[in-house]
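# nightly structure sweep
# worker-07 picked up a monomer target from the shared queue
# config: single-sequence mode, recycle default, output format = C-alpha cells
# input follows
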Amino acid sequence: MQELDYSANQCARETSSVTPTNATSPRRIRRLPERQTADRIDLFALLDDELVGHLAAVVDGEPVVVPMGYARDGEHLLLHGSTGGGFALRAADERATVAFAVTALDGLVYARSLFDSSMNYRSAVVYGVLETVPADETDAALIALSERLMPGRPAEVRGTTRKETAATRVLRLALDDVVMKARAGGASEDPDDGEDHIAWAGVVPLVRSWGPPSASALTPAGTPIPDSVVARMTRSTGEPTPTRKSVVALRTRPPGEHRLH
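# output follows
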C-alpha cells in the first residue's frame, strides 16, 4: 500500500497500537517493517470486515487485476466465478500463482506537515494458487459465501437450481501465504520538530454505514424488511437499524426519494 508518511524521522518517533509479530510467511515488508503482523485474529477481522478484494495475476505476460467479492470460510477465501470464462478461472486451470489484496481504510492522519501526514489502515495480500471447489461441494460453498455477504439470506430465498450451479464455479484460495500490514494511532508529535504546534493535528476516522433499504419494483407494497437485511446492516455498522415499520413502505422511487419517514 502506498503511504503518505515517507519520512525516516517519523518512522522513529511514530507510535502505533499495532504490535508486530514474527510472520509465518517468508515474505517480509521492506517499507516500515514494524507494521507487519502475523496475528490471525487481526487478519480474520480484516477479511470479515471487508466484502471486496482485488485479484491479480500475470496473463499472457501482462499484469491483470480485477475487483471481486469474496468471503472467508475458515482458513480459505471463497471467490465467485462463472464457467463463462475470466482470467481467474484460467489462473485456476493453469495453476498460476495469484495475489489477492484486501484493504480497509480506517482514517486519515492529519500531521502538522503534509510530509508527515498519513493514513490508518489494515491491508493484507494473500498469495497462492486458486483451486476450483469440487462440483459436489459447490452448493455448500455458495451458501457459505452468501452467508458472509448477506447473512441469513439463503434461508429466505429459493435454492440454487441445477442449471445455475452448472454455470457457476467457486474458487478457493488458502490463507497459507499472507502478508498483513497495519497502522493505527495519531500523528507524530515532537515538541522540538520546529513545526507550528498551533496548527491542528489528529485523526479523522472513517465510518461507513448502509443506507435505508430500497425495495425493488416487483416487491409488493407492505412487504416487511427481511431479517437478512437487518442482520447485514447491524453486522456492518454495529448501530441500531431502521425499524421494519419505518422502511416497510420503501419502494423503487426516483433518486432522492428514498428516505425514512
